[in-house]
Structure formats: C-alpha cells, structure tokens
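Co-fold these.
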Amino acid sequence: MATALPKIRFRDPQIEMAHGAGGKASRRLIEGLFAPILCGLSSEPLADAAIVSINGADIAITADSFVVSPLAFPGGSIGELAVNGTVNDLAVSGARAEVLVVTYVLEAGLPTEILEAEVRAMGRAASAAKVAIAGGDTKVVEHGKADKMYITTAGVGRPIPGVQLSARSARPGDVILISGPIGDHGITILLARGDLDLEADICSDTRPVIDLVEALAKAAAPGLRWMRDPTRGGVATTLNEFARDCALGVCLFEDRIPVHDAVRGACELLGLDPLHIANEGQFLAVVAPEYADAALEALQSAPGGRHACRIGEVREQPARSVLASTPYGGTRIVDMLVGDPLPRIC
Amino acid sequence: MRFTDEFRDPGLILQTSDEIRRLADPARHYRLMEVCGGHTHAIYRFGLNDLLPPNIELVHGPGCPVCVLPMGRIDDGLAIAAGNDVIFTAFGDMMRVPGTHGSPLEHKARGADVRIVYSPADALKIARANPCRHVMFFAIGFETTAPSTALTLMRAKAEGIRNFSVFCNHVTIIPAIRAILDSPDMRIDAFIGPGHVSTVIGCRVYEWIARNEGKPIAVSGFEPLDVLQSIVMILRQMERGEAKVENQYRRVVPWEGNRAALKVMADVFTLRSYFEWRGMGFISQSALALNDAYADWDAERLFKVPGIRVTDPKAAQCGEVLKGVLKPQQCKLFGSECTPENPVGALMVSSEGACAAYYQYDHRKSQLVSIPA
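Predicted complex below.
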C-alpha cells in the first residue's frame, strides 16, 4: 500500500531569529516542516502540550527550552522560568504537572555561583508549584558556543477531571478572559538588557498559574472551552491561533485589556503593541457565556487573580481574525506578531 | 498616562468626530494628505477612518524614512560592512528592509555583525567598547533624527574616536512635499503636517504651501484627538476659504522650530545637490551629507562605496503609494507577493509604512459582516 508522503511547505532558505519568536514565522516552520515529518497527517491543531493515552490512562506531556538573556531579571530568572513555563503549558492544557525532567546546556567558563543560583531558583519554583524534579542531563559546550546556559524542561501531568479543551468547541458568544495585566515579562526583559537606558518600576510576571486554572475549572469546567498562556508573540498571536483553529472571529474590547502604566509607557515610547508582548504568568480562557460570571468570580477570588477580567468575545465574523474595538467606535485588525521585536525573552 | 490619555478621551473623540461631520460639505470630496508615517500608523492603529464621513479621504504621504530609501543605499551600506569587517549598526526599523541580497537581519543570520541600536549614541558606545573594530551607523530619518546623528558625530570628534563612522541617508521633508505638489497626478486639498519633524524645523517653513499653493496645513500630534482636531482645523479653513499654517501640536512644536537642533545640524551636515528617493526619483537638495569638517567620520569617504543602483521590482508600485496616487491595496502585489513577512517594498516593512499599517490593521476589516458594537 502506498503511503502518502508528507508535503513539506517550508521554503525559507535559512533559520532566522523570527522563526523562534512565536509569531507567523514560527508557525510556518512548525506546520510546514516539523508537523508533516514528525506528526504525520494528524489534523489536530498543534498545541504546546498534548494529552496522550497510555494503557488507558490519560497523561499530559510537554517540553520547553529556555534561552533568556539576561539570565536574571527583576521578578525572576531563567531557572524559575524553566519550571513555571512547563508547569503552565500543562496547566493551560488542563493538567496539573506532577513531575519534570531537566536538561542543562552550559557554556564552559560559567561561574558556579551563577549555576547554583539558578538551580536553587528551580528548586524554589518546583516546590511552589508542587512538582517533583525526577532527573535530567547536563552537557557542557566550549566557551563561546552558547550564551552562558540554556535549560530544557519536560513535564508530565495529570488531567484535571471534567476539563475538555479544544478550540473547535468554541461557539459565537463565548467570553474571553485574561488572568491579569499583560506585557510585564517582555517589557521587563527588554529593559533589563540595558540597551535602552530606560528604567521602570516593573517586574516579570513569571509564576505558576495552575492554582488559578484549578479554581477556574472548579467553578466552570463544563463551560471551559480553551486555555492558553500568551508567551512569545503575546495575546495577539495566541488569539490569532485560536481564531484560526476554531474558524471563528475574536473581538477584543481594547479599553478593558489590563496593562500596567509602565508597560503602556514603554510600549508607547518604543512603538510596540502590548498585545504582542510576552507574558510568563498569565493565561487566556474561553468560557461559555452562561459560565462567564462564575468563571470570572472564581478567578478574581483566587490568590493572584484579582485583576482577571473579561476582555472580549468570540463572534462569527471576522472569521479566523482578531479585531479590537475602541470605546469611541474605531476598530482595527490585531495581527500575529511578524518578525522578532524582542529577541530571546524566555 | 499623562499626555496620552487626555488625547484618547472617548467623549471628546466622539464630539470631535461629530464636529467633522458637521463641517464637511456633503457635496464635495476632500483629499487630505497626512505627510508623516507616524500619522498613517496612528490612523490605522486607532481606526480613525471609521470616525470620518466617507467623503473625507486620507491620503498617505512620503514621510516614512525607511520607505523612501532606495534599495541601492541599503546594498551600499551592507557592502561596506561586509567588505571591511565593519560592525553595522542601525535602528530596528531598518533591519527587515530588503536589499538585493537580503535584509540586514538576513545578513546577520549569515554571520555579518549587524546590531540594532536605539540611538546613534549607542553605536558610538559600541565603538568605544570595541576599539579594534570599526563601527558604522547607518543613519536614516528626516530632520527628526538628524540632530541626534549630528550630536553623536560632534561627540566622536571631541573624544577623538576614530573607529566610528556614519553612512548618512538623512533626508529633508520640504523638498519631498514640493515634489508631491509638483507631481501632475496629484490632487491634494490640504495637508496634515508632520509632527515630529516640525519639533525641529517649526511651522514657518510650511507657509509657502498655504501662500503659493493655496493649501491649508495643520501640523498635528499623533493621538486620535490630535489627528481629528487637525482635520477640524483644516475643514474650518476650507469653509472660510482660507489657506494658512496652523499648529495643532503646540504642546510640542514651537512655531520657529528648535534652534539648538538646527544649529548642530548646520554645524555637521551639508546639503547634497541631489538624492534618490524610492519611487520618486532624484530630488534636488533633498538630503544631507557630512560636511568637510567631519570627513574623517564619513563612511562614504572612508570606504569605497559601490554606488549600487537598483530599480524597484517592476510590479511593485511603491512610488505611486508613496505619493498617495494609489492606496496600498491597489498595488498589484499587496497581500499576495508582498506581505509584512516577505516584503517586496519597504512600505511593507516599517510600522510607519502605509502598506504595513494597512495590512496590519485594516485590510481584513472589509470581510466584516457587521461592525461590532
């Protein structure tokens, strides 16, 4: 029997920073090269984590790499990100992380003091997220062949009972919630690099969101359609992916999107859109309208969820796109991130 | 946020939009050119077209410095960097602009030392930190950015930093406006004047447009209320049959300009007798070069410049869009061969470019069945 050969659509001649920035180029790489070769002809939308069935038991699995520069920044560091990022990828797939494995790629010459600080940060983050670290691997490369240290974490989690997530289950009228203010992480990293000579009272939002996700699931599991953490590419890119996957439109109410003044100010100065800026401690949820009030109340009364709010809704049109409306009646299309405004932020 | 939120007040915006509807004569069609790319971006970003009656048409002008730079200059800059082991520095806007053999970012991915800076002073900082390498700043921009390049050169000279140079592509706004007014296919009723450029050159320099050409001009800020108020000013002038220069952006723009900034520009630069603009051809006395006192920091004198001349891809109609003759979506390549991800022309690259702004914020809106409440 002849097997259909996977069609490779990725035609870019070389890999550039944009391919890792989480926007359009990343999607092209994944859908055009990785998925056809590695995932066969599956028609399921690709996600950061997958729920797989082994001997009849469902488990959630994910992996993520962290290459942030600088290693430490206000509000966190690479070690903390490496734990929280993977815990969160599982959380927004509807699973509580149980165990992680860790791989370090270290550059020869890295001071032990720095490594120790990051290992300790990972330990603290793991106990805060109640996840075990079960093992891993260490590689050292020559000086100059890597930027100090890279960390990869893979995680396995247990699905939260009653939660069934799929973009395709979304319906017009569904409500879009965000767990808190956006853009803190990306702007913090940008300022921490020191290239801009800008200072602002702001820190990364890195944190595990699993407790918030569980509070939300407890209050609204039957109406919970889809969740995602808007990391690289920001809320704009994540919602564009959602709109594409469910073939519906997303309408955002621009004045309801929570953004700290320092983030707004930096974005105004630098010509960036907060909707394109990365987050490491927030998530988006799409909830059926009859569960929206209960969902929002549950989020707002959970620790760390006080600033959660309703930022938009799912509509039939514009299908596969995201539209933002202003309180004075202007509208604009919100596109995915193109290129790479903030290289290596997670 | 101060100086921002006041100018985004929904009540005032709606009031001003109503005022525009009252002033606009339904029997006539208004073509207003926003000269500056920053305005183009703001108009799409805030959805301002939705607040205007259909007979007010906003036409995008040539005020996007990345967009007007011909491809040959990018090739020249990259060739100098490649041939002389030079650290190539430029603003982020420049990084994705396609040259014949790829953009500066693509050159970087292939191993060239290309670095993004946020100010020419940062490029000088890199030169201080790398005394054994040469650092070239690829300077672009209108009078808005020229003073910071001039100050950086003055500092380099004062400190005797010799491993630093500027590849100067600074252009001036007035000759571009003049070229637009001289263009036979141009029908513009009035101008929304550039805000940032005017902080340096002031408002008086536009008086000839009102006096000789009979076109009203309102120098405008970049918030939604600024742009709408400028349109009100223009419509009032037209209603009264007047043509004069008004300064809507008084909180930033002094009528006479910034004397200190003009002085440093005069100390460092000299006018080129002509310069090529993308899509508009050669315009006389429209660009700046370093003067003889700064010859030692002038990349065009320090290095052999290939002087590459590249014609724009035939099918791309950047020139027509730059002059406001065509709307972005009327170009044959728009959205198909030319997208922000794979730009053919520079107007699709810079966030101030009319095509990128239209693509990013507006073009799929036409698919809307109903405008959301």
